[in-house]
Every structure is written in C-alpha cells, then in structure tokens.
Write a structure and sequence with these properties.
77% helix; mainly alpha; 209 residues; globular
Amino acid sequence: MEWSTWLAFFAASWAISISPGAGAVAAMSAGLNHGFRRGYITTMGLVLGIWTQLLVVGAGLGALVATSATAFQVIKWLGVAYLVWLGIQQWRAPARPLAALHDGSARVSARAMVLRGWLINAVNPKGTVFLLAVVPQFLDLSQPLAGQYLVIGLTLGFTDLVVMGGYTALAARVLSALKSTAHMRAMNRVFGALFVVAGGLLSVFKRGA
C-alpha cells in the first residue's frame, strides 16, 4: 500500500471509529460500570470484532452477506437481539455507586468483557456492508492483498483503541462524579436505552442504505 493511500485510509478510519454506534455505547457502558482500567478491556473485544469483520470481507463471505437476503436477515436480527438484550441487562443492572465497584462484588471476568465487545462488532452486518463499500477503494489489486489487509486491520485497530479508549475514559470520568444509587440507576437506564436504540437502528438498516 502506497503512503498516500494509507494516509487517506488513516483519515477515513478515524471517521469510522468516531462515528457513534453500538461500539461507542459499549465502550461508554464499560467505563460507567467498571471504570477506565477494567472498562478498557471491552475495547479489546471491539477491535477483535472489527478484525473478524475484515476477515469475513477478505474471505469473500462479506459479499454473500451483502447479496443474500436470508444470510443478511439472519445475522442482522441476531445482532438486534443481542443489542436489545444488552440494553435490558444494563437497564436492570444494580445501581452501585463508585465505591462499590472496588469491593469485588458482581465482578465481570475479563474474558466475558472481551466476548461482549467482540459480539457487538462481529454480529453486525452493517459493519460488513460498510467495510465492503470502503475497503476496496484503498486496495491495489495488482499487488498482494494479504499485506494490504494486514495494514488496514492494524490501522482500524489502532484508531479504535484510541477512540474507544476516549469514550471509556469519558464515561469513567462521569462515573466518578456519581455519588448516589439514584444517579447510577439513572445512568444505567440511559445506557440501557441507548443499546436498545442501537438495536432499533440496526433493525431498519438495509443493504442498500
């Protein structure tokens, strides 16, 4: 990949990462519930989900998702169901003030947090269709593709680690100001609603959108 091409993709990858979506909601939710240090673990899963999407596109399966109505609908509704389920879980989460986060109660394992992040990005046909529309514009088909996909994957991973880290830190900063269970309950319900909204937006997404 030429330097000028990479710079163009690098700029595009920032726009991709910064644009609000289910990943941003997940990062902020993790920061709200676990603080920055543990919440950032979810971002690792989000990046793995992006890389999974890129592998799907690179293997040609993305074209199947984009052209097969059945495959698209199955994956889309799995993603919708998962986001709505996350929203319900967040809405019903115990209203624990910041101090309670350090007492070891209801501690979520790092593996579970990574899996949650991965599922949010991996089971999302919108991401697949988006990558199918964007990535080919930066590929030189006369050159080996494996190295180009590696550069693209590393670039997307880097920008997402930075941007989602910012979302996580922002939510963790807000969390530090929450002193009562009423505040935490309100924030849990806000993020629960955001997950459901993200699921609703995915439910109306169409391949041609």
